[in-house]
């Protein structure tokens, strides 16, 4: 297959049917494609998919979910298969990592966030403990990211989730990541200054609506939802002043 043939990445559409929706898996693949494109000739486009009216090519290829990827005759909508395909077809830069401690510290944070935002757990202490684990591992490193000075698959997995935790937990539960977690905030700051993260990131409004529509989460009134839809897209890329 000609690797220069253009790739089409289908991602979740936002509530307005056009903006990027709040799917961390979609953002992760978008960032991976941007990373791969920095070191080799790789051409791709990103299209949003609203399942109320999916694009014709999406329907014709009988794709059923997002993220989905089309490259020549290859059409995939299984996330793990897409990851493997991109690494096999575009091996540079390598995004692999081998770091047990880094992998372990990230394992449960998103689950604890889901429990908290859905009121399965009323108390944020379990989420706070998982965030502190990540902060401690980052404190033990001199590198820019979890496993080195460039992002790996682990960073591409964790950073979109951390950002959604930040935005959704604050909007729906009044929870803020502690400014005492200065290494975690420094990690987020490096992501926020990276074009790959900023280009692939959904706006705050989409993240808030996405989580508010989940079962058992604090819901939004019709007025609040309409207000968010009208607002200019907002991105929480600011960083608190952290204590020394």
UniProtKB/TrEMBL annotation:
Keywords, ordered alphabetically: Membrane, Transmembrane, Transmembrane helix
Top-level taxon in the UniProt lineage: Eukaryota
Major subcellular location class: membrane
Every CLIC N-terminal domain range: 6-91
InterPro entries cross-referenced by the UniProt entry: CLIC_N (IPR053823), Glutathione-S-Trfase_C_sf (IPR036282), Thioredoxin-like_sf (IPR036249)
A GO CC term assigned to this protein in UniProt: apical plasma membrane
Protein name: Chloride intracellular channel exl-1
Originating species: Trichonephila clavata
Taxonomic classification: Eukaryota, Metazoa, Ecdysozoa, Arthropoda, Chelicerata
